[in-house]
Amino acid sequence: MRNDRLKIVFVLCLAFVSTGGQHLESKVAQLLQDKAEDIKCFVEGKDLTCFWEEEEERNNLHDQYTFTYSYENKKKMACVVSSLSLLASNKTVFFCKLPKTPFFTTLVVQVYRDAQMLYSRSLNAENFLFLDPPRNLTVTNSGKEGQLNVSWLPPPLKYMDDSLIYEVRYAMEGSNMGKVEVIKVSTMLVLLGLQSDTRYKVWVRVKPDGVAYKGYWSAWTEPVFGVTPPGDMDPLIVVLVLFIGLILCLLSLTVILSHHKFLLKKLWPDIPTPEHKFPGLFTVYKGDFKEWMSQNNGSIWGRSVHVYAEELPSPLEVLSEVSLTGHATSQREERKPVEEEEEKESERSDSRLTDRWREPPHAHWLMEQLRALQDNPESLSQSSLLQSHDTYVTLNQGDNERQDDDVFEETVPLQTLFTTAGTSSLSTSRSDLGSLQQSSGSGRLSSQSSFEYPNHTWPPKGPGYAYMAVADSGVSMDYSPMSSSRIAELGKHRMYTNDYKNDIFPHKWPLSGQHIKSGSGSCTGTVW
Amino acid sequence: MGSVAERSKALDLGSSLSGGVGLVSVLMVFVWLGENQVSPLRPICDLRVLDHFVREARDSEVIMRGCRGGCGVMKSYFVPLTSVDFAVWEHTDVHGQAVEVQTGLSLLDQALNNAMKTVSNSPLASVLENNISNIHSLGQILHSLDLQQARSTVLPDDSVPASAQTQEVSSLPELLQVQSSFLRGKVRLLLSAAPACQRQNS
């Protein structure tokens, strides 16, 4: 029985020593990194332990070492040296544990090896406390959002409860980045500002506060987990969010309603239709233009023209024709392919008027003829072709000397007079005339001169005279000699090209005059 | 008629006598109350006061280390023992602890005063003066704890049981180190374990 008891006691002692040794080993291992001192000391509990590393190239015989300590000028006292093998770093240390460590006094510790002093150090024991970690760490849910209650017990010490500071480290589970809170004396803490419904890990360690006692940080406790309560939406915030959303909706609705027409125009624009220009075309005649034209032949044409005062189609007559048939026919023949070219080109053109003067091959001859006619106005008086409301094109010429092609092209401004029942067009055209003076000063506007047709009648199917049809805007001008039959065609063709609703004849005659390309113009006009 | 006058006279005398006796008795009662009733100081149990003194003692050590010139002469001072063996200390009763602390404070006070006479460096002199006033305050704190310690604050050098309770140091830095250790050790242990404060805490 007694043997059993002894055995039990021995086993317990061993266990105690081993755990103590484990503590010792861990502490020694931690302090081993401190290279400042040869003898490293710490106080565990109430006892000072000093250790030093085994020197290399020595045998592992701890009998050689002698450890002495003294204080307050007393005699030196010896301490029993023991050895410890560190498994982690595969080193051996010798240590000594002072049996009764005096505190608050200067200790002088020395290590001798074979009566030769190896190390010496003087220290105050209360400055090297190496405490055990706190115990009984608990993390509880406080019930409030984002908070955890942490509490622990201090290491078992007397007289030091009020001299300790703690460090609480916490991190989200799975993360290594933690925050640290330092707390003095008190052994509980409320963690604030945490995420809701998250699992947290918490560690604690302890150290003397450094006023009366000093020391090293203890080891961290084992982590303890805690879960924060799930967060609930603050009802005030929900109400505010809804309110603001409602206000925003109302505002946007108001804006949309007040500008709905504008928005509709932008998002769903009307497809432009030419209906307004052809009254009755789509409604009555179902798009049959021929019928519509036949019904509204003269008057409607005139009326439609009259409505858009600036888009006046007006026939253009050059009232002089010289019966040089050879020239004329040759000119006409030459011009036929040119004419077709022109027509095609004009059809291909955009909404601008592309008028091209094609220089007549016999420009000089032409000018001479005109001059002749001009000089003899009485020869023209016989003409019955003039109608006051017809449009006249006067080809104004510059100096007679300048017979060059370039000069001819530059100095022949095309001037159109619009004469209709109304004078408004005339007035506008007069203003346009002003803008038409683009020549280098040699142009002269003569609005009234007219060329009378001396020999021929004026029916618009003569083979020899130029006939210009001035259609409304959007129509490319074609100064080519053509028969009357083509006029109607031209009208038909031209009427439907390039209709733009918004521009009320911006490209009027005067502007069309500007489009006369000087380089390529050819007046396929007068043939007489 | 004579009897009436005599009676009135006697009455007057009697009343005055009784009044006087009453007054005296009241006074007696007051005196008795005053004597019996201790007018105690409130016990100062907050150790932060002591921690403040400890920090200032440490500051004086730092200033001492940085002192160049006029830092006192080599002189021997008798200072208390500062070492604390917890096992022994716990076995000492409070009264004995109080006596130790009180005598130690006295010794330190004396030594510091002697040292100040030899110091001409003004920062050092001012911190020494501060330390002396701190020691006086500690005396007051001890008194407030009512530990029945010896009331004498100043002891002559030769009457102290030197060997048991004192040690000798030979320089001012050592003196300051002893002061620091003494305050952190014995004084603190005594104050933290004072019965007057324990009663308050529990």
How are the elements arranged and paired?
The complex is a heterodimer of chains A (528) and B (202).
Chain A: H1 2-31, E1 40-44, E2 47-53, E3 65-71, E4 77-79, E5 81-86, E6 91-97, E7 106-113, E8 116-124, E9 129-130, E10 135-141, E11 148-153, E12 164-172, E13 179-184, E14 188-191, E15 199-208, E16 215-216, E17 224-227, H2 235-258, H3 260-267, H4 289-295, H5 298-307, E18 314-317, H6 325-348, H7 363-375, E19 391-395, H8 405-410, E20 414-416, H9 424-436, E21 467-470, H10 484-495, H11 509-514
Parallel strand pairs in A: 9-16, 18-19
Antiparallel strand pairs in A: 1-2, 2-6, 3-4, 3-7, 5-6, 7-8, 10-11, 11-14, 12-13, 12-15, 15-17, 18-21, 19-20
Chain B: H1 2-36, H2 47-65, E1 77-80, H3 86-91, H4 94-118, H5 122-145, H6 162-165, E2 166-169, H7 172-192, H8 195-201
Antiparallel strand pairs in B: 1-2
Helix pairs in contact in B: 2-5, 2-7, 4-5, 4-7
Walk me through this protein's architecture.
The complex is a heterodimer of chains A (528) and B (202). Chain A has helices at residues 2-31, 235-258, 260-267, 289-295, 298-307, 325-348, 363-375, 405-410, 424-436, 484-495, 509-514, and strands at 40-44, 47-53, 65-71, 77-79, 81-86, 91-97, 106-113, 116-124, 129-130, 135-141, 148-153, 164-172, 179-184, 188-191, 199-208, 215-216, 224-227, 314-317, 391-395, 414-416, 467-470. By secondary structure, chain A is an alpha+beta fold. In chain A, strands 1-2-6-5 form a 4-stranded antiparallel beta sheet. In chain A, strands 4-3-7-8 form a 4-stranded antiparallel beta sheet, with no helix packed on it. Chain A has a 4-stranded antiparallel beta sheet with strand order 13-12-15-17, with no helix packed on it. In chain A, a hairpin with a 2-residue loop joins strand 7 and strand 8 (116-124). The radius of gyration of chain A is 58 Å and the shape is elongated. Residues 326-347, 349-359, 380-391, 397-454, 456-462, 483-488, 490-501 and 505-528 of chain A have low confidence and may be disordered. Chain B is mostly helical. Helix content of chain B is 70%, strand content 4%. Chain B contains 8 helices and 2 strands, in the order ααβααααβαα. In chain B, helix 2 packs antiparallel against helix 5 and helix 4 (94-118) packs antiparallel against helix 5. The longest helix of chain B is centred in the first third of the chain and has 35 residues, at 2-36. Chain A: This is Erythropoietin receptor. Chain A: It is found in: Cell membrane. Chain A: Residues 422-450 have a biased composition (Low complexity). Chain A: It comes from Cirrhinus molitorella.
